[in-house]
Amino acid sequence: NCETQKWTVNGQLRVGFFTTKLVTSGSELTFDYQFQRYGKEAQKCFCGSANCRGYLGGENRVSIRAAGGKMKKERSRKKDSVDGELEALLENGEGLSDKNQVLSLSRLMVRIETPEQKLTCLKLIQNTHSQACLKSFLECHGLSLLWIWMAELGDSRGNTANSLKLQLEIIRTLELLPIPNKNMLEESKILPIIQRWARTKSAIPQLSEGDGYSSENTSRAHTPLNTPDPTSKPLLEGE
């Protein structure tokens, strides 16, 4: 009667539990943990529910294979749903136009998983000309959502071309957001990752006119974030 959802709270990744139907007082709350591991060894569950698998954690291979088809179909349904919602936001071809669309995008960013979907979200933000919508995105914890993607990418060592492309588009998006001060970057934990990327030459490809980058792009928003030059030597403490 419940489901789990991934949320960010004060910049930290958290899992929330939400009911999927009306639950009467005194009823047990149950949810499908979707074969997530809760430790290396399986732990016996004592809930007594008829639908319980009997243990948490180290799922045996037979059970995983048996449930594989069902899980694959569920992932496919979720992907179709997300793609449909993204297409609805792309209809006008001009980015986000009101706060409702900003809220919808923020909720989608928590659910999406594929690099292609993430790139679509970033393009939506980049194509948004309304400063009110861009500010609303920041108010909807937009930087925290971007931080999750950045943390998942890591330092780019050994990353694929798609990962590097995603890094580049994240940086371009940050350039266009009306970030009022450096404190917001620090509080969202984005700044340390940007600094770490800047120390890795392959992490931030050189922006050029051929990549569709222009200095005019940054005129839409006044932000203290400047993309570091990947060819420059980073300053170390004590220098």
Task: Report on the architecture of this protein.
This is Post-SET domain-containing protein. One of its GO terms (molecular function) is histone H3K36 methyltransferase activity. One of its GO terms (biological process) is regulation of gene expression. InterPro entries: Post-SET_dom, SET_dom_sf, SETD2_animal, TFIIS/LEDGF_dom_sf. Residues 207-239 are annotated as: Disordered. The protein has 239 residues and is mostly helical. It folds into 2 domains: 2-56, no CATH class; 78-200. Helix content is 45%, strand content 8%. The protein contains 8 helices and 4 strands; from the N terminus they run E-E-E-E-H-H-H-H-H-H-H-H. The strands form 2 sheets. The chain has a two-stranded antiparallel sheet. Strand 1 (2-9) and strand 2 form a beta hairpin. Helix 1 packs antiparallel against helix 2, helix 2 (99-111) crosses helix 4 and helix 3 runs parallel beside helix 6 (161-176). The chain starts with a strand and ends in a 41-residue tail after the last helix. Mean pLDDT is 73; it is low at 59-67 and 205-239.
CA radius of gyration is: 21 Å
Strand content: 5-15%
The outline comes out as globular
Write the element-wise H/E pattern from the N-terminal end onward.
Answer: EEEEHHHHHHHH
What's the N-to-C terminus distance?
58 Å
Helix/strand/pairing category: mainly alpha
Helix content: 40-55%
Number of helices: 8
> Number of DSSP strands?
4
User: What count of structural domains?
Assistant: 2
Order of strands across the main sheet: 1-2
Mean pLDDT: 73
Give a quick account of the main beta sheet: strands, pairing sense, barrel closure: 2 strands, antiparallel
Domain Post-SET: 41-57
GO biological process, one term: methylation
Organism: Micrurus corallinus
GO molecular function: histone H3K36 methyltransferase activity
